[in-house]
Amino acid sequence: MTLMNHMDTKVGRLQVEVDGDGPPAVLWHSLFVDSATWSALRVVLRADRQLIIIDGPGHGKSSAPPPDFDLAECAEAASQVLDTLGVREPVDWLGNAWGGHVGLTLAASSPARLRSLATIATPLHALSSRERMTIVPMVWAYRFVGAVPPLANGVARALLGPAFMRSRPDEAAAVVRAVRAAPRTGMHRAMTSVMLNRPSLDPLLPRIQTPTLMIVPTSDQMLPAAQIHAAVAQMHSAVAVEVDGEGHVAPLIAQADELAEILKAFWADPKGYVAARR
Fold first, then answer.
1. pLDDT at position 221, please?
2. I need a labelling partner for 96 at 20 to 30 A (CA). Which of 31, 83, 217, 219 fits?
3. For domain 2-125+200-277, is the CATH number 3.40.50.620?
4. What is the pLDDT of residues 68-117, one digit of tens each?
C-alpha cells in the first residue's frame, strides 16, 4: 500500500510517499526532476523495504522553498519528515545527485539518523569557474522565460546523456516533461540554492562515520569517477562502485536492475560490504 502526505518542514510543504514494508529507506531525487525517476528501482526495492520517497522543495508536488535555503536545511527537513512519520530507528538513505548531497549533510550533522548512506551520481565539489560560465546564464534564462523547449531539452540531455536521449526517446520525453512542469519560482530557488550556491562537500567527508556507498556512472560528463574514488579515500567507512551508464539520472532507468542488486547487497550488511571492498 502506498500512502501520500504533504508534510510541513523547514523548506516548505514536501510531498512524501511511503511504499512497501520492512526497514525504512529514504529516497531523495536529483535536481530538476522528481520522485518519478525512482519508478523502476522502487518496484524492486519496496519488496523488502519501507520506502520513504520525498519530493524535494520546488519539485514534483512539493511547495516552493524559501529563498536562499541550503543543504543543512534540506537535511533538517528530512529529519522532520521522519519525526512526523514516527520513524525513530536509523534509516538507509538513497540519494541521487542532490539527494546524495542531502544525505551526506545529514550523515555529518545527525549520524544517529542513518544506518547507511548510498549516493548515485553525486558531485562533491562546488561548481568550477568553467561550469559556472555555462550554468549561470542558463539559470538566469530560466528565471525570465521558464523551461522553454531548448532549455528543458538541454537539461534533460545533461541528466541523461545523448545516447540515452537517442535510444530511449519516450523515457527522455518524460524527463523533459518533468523539467517543464515544475513551477518556475520553486525550481529557480532550488537551482540557485543547491546548485549555484552549493559549497564543496569535501570538508564533511572525514566526519562521516556512516557506512557509505558512492555509485558513479562511468560516462557522466558532469562527474569524473576519479572525484568519487578520491572522496571515499577520505572517509571512515566508504567505497565507490562504478556502473556503466551516462548522466546523473539515466542509470536509475537504464541500469535499474544492476543498481537494485548493488543496493540490496549493501543494505544487507553495510559495514561488511564496505570492508570487503576497501
1. 85
2. 83
3. no
4. 999 999 999 999 999 999 999 999 999 999 999 999 999 999 999 999 99
Q: Which residues contact 43 (CB under 8 A, 6 or more apart)?
A: none
- Cα 207 to Cα 27, 135, 139, 172, 226, distances in angstroms: 22, 30, 32, 38, 21
Q: What is the pLDDT of residues 6-64, one digit of tens each?
A: 999 999 999 999 999 999 999 999 999 999 999 999 999 999 999 999 999 999 999 99
For residues 240 and 222, the model is more confident at 240
**DSSP secondary structure of the chain:** -EEEEEEEETTEEEEEEEESSSSEEEEE--TTS-GGGGHHHHHHHTTSSEEEEEPPTTSTTSPPPPTT--HHHHHHHHHHHHHHHT--S-EEEEEETHHHHHHHHHHHH-GGGEEEEEEES---SPPPHHHHHHHHHHHHHHHHH-S-HHHHHHHHHHHH-HHHHHH-HHHHHHHHHHHHHS-HHHHHHHHIIIIITPPPSGGGGGG--S-EEEEEEEE-TTS-HHHHHHHHHTSSSEEEEEEEEESSSHHHHHTHHHHHHHHHHHHH-HHHHHHHH-
Work out the pLDDT band at 3, boundaries 50, 70, 90.
confident
